[in-house]
Amino acid sequence: MENIYLERIAELRTMMQTRDWDAVILTGSDPHNSEYPPERYKQILFLTGFGGEAAGLAVTADEAILWTDTRYYIDAKQVLAGSGISLRRQAKLNSGELASWLSEQFQDAEGAQIAIDALTTSAQLEGLLREAVAGRGELIGVSDLLSPLWPDRPELPQTPLFTFDSEEGRSAKLAFLREFCRRQQCDGLLLGSLDEVAWTMDVRAFDIEYTPFVISYLLVTEKEAVWYVLKGSIEDPGSREALERLAADGVRIEDYSAALLLADDLQDGIRLYCNPQCLNAALRDALCAAGIDIVEGDSPVEARKAIRTEGEIEATRRAHLIDGIAVEKFLFKLEKALEAGQAVSERDAALWLGQLRAANEEYLSDSFETISAYGPGAALPHYVVPEENAPLLRRKGLFLCDSGGQYLCGTTDITRTVPLGECTPLEKEDYTLVMKGHIALSSAIFPEGTPGCRIDALARDALWRTRRNFGHATGHGVGFLLSVHEGPECIRPDLNPTPLQPGMVVSCEPGIYREGLHGVRHENLMLCVRDSENEFGAWLRFETLTLCHFDSSALMTELLTKEELDWLNAYNARVYATLSPYLSEEEAAWLREKTSPIIA
Amino acid sequence: MENIYLERIAELRTMMQTRDWDAVILTGSDPHNSEYPPERYKQILFLTGFGGEAAGLAVTADEAILWTDTRYYIDAKQVLAGSGISLRRQAKLNSGELASWLSEQFQDAEGAQIAIDALTTSAQLEGLLREAVAGRGELIGVSDLLSPLWPDRPELPQTPLFTFDSEEGRSAKLAFLREFCRRQQCDGLLLGSLDEVAWTMDVRAFDIEYTPFVISYLLVTEKEAVWYVLKGSIEDPGSREALERLAADGVRIEDYSAALLLADDLQDGIRLYCNPQCLNAALRDALCAAGIDIVEGDSPVEARKAIRTEGEIEATRRAHLIDGIAVEKFLFKLEKALEAGQAVSERDAALWLGQLRAANEEYLSDSFETISAYGPGAALPHYVVPEENAPLLRRKGLFLCDSGGQYLCGTTDITRTVPLGECTPLEKEDYTLVMKGHIALSSAIFPEGTPGCRIDALARDALWRTRRNFGHATGHGVGFLLSVHEGPECIRPDLNPTPLQPGMVVSCEPGIYREGLHGVRHENLMLCVRDSENEFGAWLRFETLTLCHFDSSALMTELLTKEELDWLNAYNARVYATLSPYLSEEEAAWLREKTSPIIA
Q: Is A596 helix (H, G, I), strand (E, B) or coil?
């Protein structure tokens, strides 16, 4: 750990002493509880150097503790080594570990003063923390708590806005929200979650890296829709068309800073529906102070936008065609470069892939920072390529590449683990067992109403039988030109009751990670579709959206059943048939070779 | 439906009219919320003729509705045909369907009067129902509501008590409960659940058919333990030894009828811990009236008794040896009788099996009514053999037999589906696919902390892939000389978060049911055990307890993998090796034949 972080934590402690705070609790999120916050809100990175998402930090006079989940644990261990900051595991963001710690830490306290950043703590988390010290201390909400220690703190990004015609249309979506409010006997609804605002307004920008969000709030009442957007975005000439179209649909545009005053737009005593997970404590307090009656509940947008419309499904298929072409071209280029003895670093590989994606005219950006990891680096599920001296790829072992694109026609996310030459028996076994898990889930048929957690084990059973496992979700929802991670559905161990439904897009990405050795992950996106109906009920299955071959050279085919080989051969054949018309003759010949049927 | 039931419902409606009740709601349970109530509390059977457990009944002036779960649905449909009683599905006992109906039925009511039987409605259900009509009506709790219409209503059974030396011992169990109370800052604890009372007191009787329970309540305070038992049991000469031993351990014995006055044993204002699922509304009201402060929560007994002690595990293994011998002798006898052209009815088969179990000196009773179902009968997961003219077994197709024993050394539960001759291709396919599911779960390895709902799909995946399914749980917990169904663990679709833990005993019983054709179920009991620990964490697996061969003659071996065949051959070989020393020469030779390895 560099001295700069030790100094910053020391400065925070000085501030704590001056203000008589016994602890400061910070999250790695922003005022909208975004998974990927803008630079301004990377508070934990500023204080500790640890940049993973989904973290929490508590600092007292003599202790500093960072919580993160399994995905980032090994990484955090390295970053924090020697820093004096202790590292703890959390099951999930905001899942209560911070509150438990607080409750324990101050169990015998009297009048403890716990400072939180009111802008980046959700009303839900604030409630948990307040309860955790109830009777023994109080929470002090401070907006932009770290700013005094952070002279060059970045401003919020303010990028140009653009709209597009969604199948449903903005007016229909607003009508849906108004109908929801009526059913909830509410006078209005406030959306704080950036993906939900973007979906409702059919508007995008790139305020958040990799994710086409506009930093904003949306207030919907029976009479009007008020959109609170940053001044820079409003004033950007590139935003003009989008703003005109929004205005034409009756949307009133206000400055973002007015959001904390939005109570002025509302009458005292009205009932306002909010999701406490995406409403920050500062805004909640402002609403309460203005006499607004907050009705808390799950957002109606999340479940609705998770179900793709027919048009979105068609577009998503095109996004995967475009993406598959780019990834196949990349894999071809990589193989040829290595064959030619060229020095290719992890960073080179990531750049090439980005360039190949960007060549398509519908490309807007990558959907997250490409994970380009050779050998031991791939043992970190969320590896970040070093900016300098990135490791070189060698002509043996496994190269893991997890990447995705934001296209006008949708969002993609794909991982391929590429054998670059001779592999060890353990690499081959891991590669094959993860493939078995991937196939088991991809080919599953399951009754209507089944939540993802009930079929998560299908992707793990082959690993479990050899006492292997992985610490991340098997599958996450993926947005439509929105976040690459979105709910409410998922396929993971925790008992999320949301059923998988036709029209949902989820990833299938089992893996195995061996610290210091290698990592394997095979990831496709899948569309949940209706299969059939019979005397036993209605059946669902998945249609694989991702189009990119799986390399068979590292497979231990003797571990695969005939059904598994059939699946793999059929998938690779489909990839070749679909993509080859868009490839050069040389690339197509190479892909034909790569996808030639595996004989048991 | 016979006229007698129509008459009884008419009489109930007359009573409702006289007393100005708008509805009567009854459950199929008893004052202890038992799964299998004594005859006196089979209220739904009395009113409708439907005898399945886990039912609910609502009667209004012009409607009567019965709720039951999937297990009993086909059966209930037959029983209620033409009765005017409508049938609805419920997901699980007391899971809220009654409350939802009530809320809907009386949504615009004012001052509705809803009568419930206060003795057979749990405090939990009563709360749900009260909430469902809040502001629009009130609940009227009546104890033994049906008695005026039921002149010869059976008295409660009062059978002799016996004790046995559990490994932990009664004093240690009482100390555990007192420690629990201290941690909960309670002055005492009231157990209403019959299995929990039996476990704590190390006492048994047969007040409930098939289940060695004593109808009683147990009050544990810091100072004393008071056991409220029926007079007939106390006065039975056979109970003397048990009562002396209990008294020697400081247990005060009181008459059952005093339980409703047990508040007299407590000081006004003390805090009493109760599980509202097993506390009936009448007793709850009595406690409240006496100023007792009821603290509601899960019982500490349930989770503790689910984990077998080492001694209980050894005994359970012996119970399965004894049981396996009886079932193999039965299967031998059955096959020989049919071969000899003897007429064997479903009832004969059930009687033979009961007699063979009873031959062992540790046998106490069957653990539930044997399901002995040939052909279409087996399509009802909870088939009841007709008392007269039971169908004859034929030398073709499938015979399903689900049965179990209560032995001094434990409780068993086993289902074998027996091919009696030529089987149709569909019978064979169903038989084989259910076997695949059975093997997948039996041989599963899974991480410590995994709840049963996460591995339920392993037993269904092979069925799902051919779009087949079954509507009951894959596995339920089994008690130790207690109920054949016990929690908190289970392996079923609903998201019960209880992790499977070493020492738990669960069933593995996937099935397929085809109305009018046949049913298949393969059931063993399994002990959850530690497997190993490695870099990926701690691993658990199952040890199969049940010892009885699976017949391979109906298997479509081409549908089985090598691993599945290996599992089956190894299991059958173990059954032969373990049981053959206890069989006659002829039986052993037959079993050797039955268990000879299947070659793919």
A: coil
Question: Which candidate from B445, B464, B495 shows the least CB-CB separation from A467?
Answer: B445
Integer Cα distance of B118 and B144 in angstroms: 8
> What are residue B162's phi and psi, to 5 degrees?
-140, 150
| Minimal CA separation from A52 to chain B, in Å | 22
pLDDT at B165: 86
> What pLDDT is attached to residue B93?
52
What tens digit of pLDDT does each residue of A333-344 get?
A: 999 999 999 999
User: At the top level of CATH, which class does the domain B162-305 belong to?
Assistant: alpha beta
Q: Do A457 and B464 touch (CB under 8 A)?
A: no
Residue A366 corresponds to which tokens in the numbers above?
A: 């990558």
Report, as ranges of residue numbers, the positions in chain B whose pLDDT lies below 70.
1-2, 92-95, 260-265
Structure token pair of residue B220: 């544990």
Task: State how far the alpha carbon of A5 is from the alpha carbons of A2, A22, A67, in Å.
Answer: 6, 20, 17
CA distance to partner chain A, nearest, from residue B413 (Å):
26
Domain borders along chain A are: 3-149, 162-301, 307-594
CA-CA-CA-CA dihedral for B428, B434, B436, B437, to nearest 10: 170
Neighbours of A180 (CB within 10 A): 18
Rg (CA), chain B: 25
Architecture of the domain whose range is A162-301:
3-Layer(aba) Sandwich (3.40)
- B307-582 belongs to which CATH class? alpha beta
Q: How far apart are CA A407 and CA B434, in angstroms?
A: 46
What confidence tens digit (pLDDT) does each residue in A65-112 have? Answer: 999 887 777 788 888 888 889 998 887 555 688 898 999 999 888 999
pLDDT tens digits for range A437-483? 999 999 999 999 999 999 999 999 999 999 999 999 999 999 999 99
Cα angle B103, B83, B151; round to 5 = 85
Residue B529 C-alpha, separation from nearest chain A C-alpha, in angstroms: 15
ipTM of the complex: 0.90
Instruction: With a cut of 80, say whether residue A266 has pLDDT above it.
Output: no
- Token pair listed for B88: 């609805």
Domain B3-149 fold = Creatine Amidinohydrolase; Chain A, domain 1 (3.40.350)
Whether A3-149 and A307-594 share one fold: the answer is no
Give bridge partners of residue A523 from the DSSP assignment: A415
**pTM to 2 decimals?**
0.91
Q: How far is B258 from chain A (nearest CA, A)?
A: 42
Q: Which residues of B touch A (CB under 8 A)?
A: 440, 443-447, 450-451, 453-458, 461, 464-465, 467-469, 493, 495, 497, 514, 531-532, 534-537, 539, 561
Q: Of the candidates B440, B456, B514, which has its C-beta nearest A454's C-beta?
A: B456
Query: Token pair of B510, please?
Result: 């996937």
CB contact under 8 A, B445 and A457: no
Residues in chain B with CB shorter than 8 Å from the CB of A440 are 461
Q: Which CATH number does A307-594 carry?
A: 3.90.230.10
Answer yes or no: do A467 and B454 touch at CB < 8 A: no
* Percent of chain A's residues with pLDDT above 70: 98
What whole-number distance in Å separates Cα of residue A286 and Cα of residue B191? 49
With an 8 Å Cβ cutoff, are A454 and B453 in contact?
yes
Interface test with A, best of B430, B464, B540 (most A CBs within 10 A): B464
d(CA A110, CA A84): 27
pLDDT in tens, A527-586: 999 999 999 999 999 999 999 999 999 999 999 999 999 999 999 999 999 999 999 999
The C-alpha of A534 sits at a distance from chain B's nearest C-alpha, in angstroms, of 8
Q: What is the pLDDT of residue B54?
A: 74
Q: Mutual orientation of helices B310-339 and B585-594 as an angle, nearest 10°?
A: 90
Which ranges in B359-514 belong to alpha helices (H)? 425-442, 456-464
